[in-house]
Amino acid sequence: xxxxxKGRYAVTAMLDLAYHSEKRPVTLTDIAKRQQISLxxxxxxxxxxxxxxxxxxxxxxxxxxxxxxxxxQISIADIIVAVDETIDSTRCGGxxxxxxxxxxxxxxxxxxxxxQIRQYLDSISLQDVLQRKNVRQVAExxxxxxxxxxxxxxxxxxVRL
Length: 161
Fold this sequence. Notes:
two-stranded antiparallel sheet; mainly alpha; Arc Repressor Mutant, subunit A
């Protein structure tokens, strides 16, 4: 299985959203800064996540995004599939046409691996990941770094004025 940046970034952004939206909606700009992901790329991912019913936008001052259902109800596999990422280890994309339009010698092996990976990712929710101590520590560190960077930017702007 080859998980591209699309799937990785979608999971990362959803974890960030789940962590921070416990208090208020979260802007994509904030997620982009904390996770160092391009804002335009996040906009594309969130359009897909919104269409799949995982997130919802909140308009107006203090607006942003929030999860459309509880973090315990969204699996990592759901997120990956929502952004059109495949969980497939076969060379043929599961079509059984790997070798001259026939299954190759190892087709069933890789198909089985794909199913194991899918079951594993389906068994883990955003909430499960958020409950890990190291994940909360990383989120807290990122918040501090973003705050420090924001203060530095304000100071630089004030010095130029």
